[in-house]
């Protein structure tokens, strides 16, 4: 299992547009990826509805975990994405 802790850079947190961008990217990964706020419950990273329930805001730390083929690459790609301001993505 691969794991990475990242800080959310988007001004609006993991809500609306950033959640949509992140969920789409997670769905494209070869591994199954979950995300959780530190101390919270893990949810499926590819589900926009589940992402919205996290309540993850700007500056919050989240933990990404992946299992299966390409797990390390998946958490790295998604972690790098969360460390960008997705509110400014075209």
TrEMBL record:
Protein name, as recorded: Phosphocarrier protein HPr
Pfam family, one: PTS-HPr
Keywords noted in UniProt: Cytoplasm, Phosphotransferase system
Subcellular location: Cytoplasm
Highest taxon, organism lineage: Bacteria
Functional note: General (non sugar-specific) component of the phosphoenolpyruvate-dependent sugar phosphotransferase system (sugar PTS). This major carbohydrate active-transport system catalyzes the phosphorylation of incoming sugar substrates concomitantly with their translocation across the cell membrane. The phosphoryl group from phosphoenolpyruvate (PEP) is transferred to the phosphoryl carrier protein HPr by enzyme I. Phospho-HPr then transfers it to the PTS EIIA domain.
InterPro entries, sorted: HPr, HPr-like, HPr-like_sf, PTS_HPr_His_P_site
HPr domain span: 1-89
Predominant cellular place of this UniProt entry's protein: cytoplasm
